[in-house]
Hints:
- It contains nine helices and seven strands.
- By secondary structure, the protein is of the alpha/beta class.
- It has one domain (9-251): Spore Coat Polysaccharide Biosynthesis Protein SpsA, Chain A (Alpha-Beta Complex), CATH 3.90.550.
- The longest helix has 24 residues, at 235-258.
Amino acid sequence: xxxxxxxxxxxxxxxxxxxxxxxxxxxxxxxxxxxxxxxxxxxxxxxxxxxxxxxxxxxxxxxxxxxxxxxxxxxxxxxxxxxxxxxxxxxxxxxxxxxxxxxxxxxxxxxxxxxxxxxxxxxxxxxxxxxxxxxxxxxxxxxxxxxxxxxxxxxxxxxxxxxxxxxxxxxxxxxxxxxxxxxxxxxxxxxxxxxxxxxxxxxxxxxxxxxxxxxxxxxxxxxxxxxxxxxxxxxxxxxxxxxxxxxxxxxxxxxxxxx
Length: 259
C-alpha cells in the first residue's frame, strides 16, 4: 500500500507478547475483509513486546498483508497501544481489536458493516456472549459492568470492554483519549455517551484464545476500580468535558459572527 493511500477502515491491534497467535489471527482477519472487498488496513502495534511479536509483524508485512506497524518501545498498557495505533491509522473509520482471536473476523466484519450502513454520529461495538471465561473472570466482568452502570447512569453498553469498537475517525480523535491502561475502553464509552453517539451493540460469540496467555491480571481489577473512582470523582473527566463545552461555545460564537 502506498503511503498516501487512505483506506476506508483501519483496525488497530495492540500486540503484547503475542507471538503464539498473530501468525494465525491476523492473516485470517485480512482474508475475511479482503474477500468482502473492504478497503482496509490493520495497524499492528508492537506494544513493548519482549518476544518475537515485532519480527512476526515484519514477516506478515513482507508477505504482502495490508498491515502497517507502529511501535511502543516499553509497554505501559493496552490504552497506550491503542492510542499509538490510532495516531498511525489512516482510515475513514477506525476500529480497535485484540490480537488473540477471541472475536471472529466474521463478527468484526458484521459490526463494521452495521456502522457503515448507519452513518452519522454512530459507533458500533460487540457485546460478547457465551464467553469461555473462567468463573472468577465472569464474576469480575459482571461486577465491573454493573458498577460502571451505577456510577455512570445512561451508559449505552452492557459490555464496556467488548471489542471490536469501531468509530468514524474524526469522532474517535475528538475524544482525545488519555488512558494508558485497560480503562481506555471505559473512557471511550463515557466519551461516546457525552458526545451523544448512537451506539450499535451487536451480540457476538466469544472464543478461546488462539495461542499465548492473556495479559489481564489481578492488578487489572484494581486498575479498573481505581480509574472508575478517578473518573467519577476526579479531575480528568471534568477537565475533558470543560474543554468540549468551551469548544462548542467557540464554534457557536463563530457561526453567529458569520451570520
